[in-house]
Amino acid sequence: SGATVLDTEDTASRMSRIGHRELYFSDYTSVDDYLGKIATVTLHDVGQVAEQLLIEPYIVGLVGPTSLKG
Question: What SS3 state is found at 36?
């Protein structure tokens, strides 16, 4: 949220954010509304999402050597 507030100080960044919201979501959310939504997130909400993410099996992909030689 700190980066979002700082983005409002730069006209190009602000216009980019507004354009992105319009193109991808067909709406505009003011910085105050955005920060208000973030402020309503509770520790319980975060815990629920963490449980959902951590309970699912996951796949790890590695790129590089397949052996660990000193």
Answer: helix
Provide the sign of the torsion angle of the four alpha carbons 60, 61, 67, 68, taken in this order.
Answer: negative
Name residue 32's amino acid.
D
What does the alpha-carbon distance between residue 66 and residue 43 come to, in Å, rounded to a whole number? 40
15 and 21 Cβ atoms separated by less than 8 Å: no
Amino acid at 15: M
Judge residue 7's burial from the number of C-beta atoms within 10 Å of its C-beta, 0-12 exposed, 13-18 middle, 19 or more buried: middle
CB 51 within 8 Å of CB 41: no
Each residue of 6-64: pLDDT tens digit? 666 778 878 888 888 889 888 877 888 888 999 999 999 999 999 888 887 878 787 88
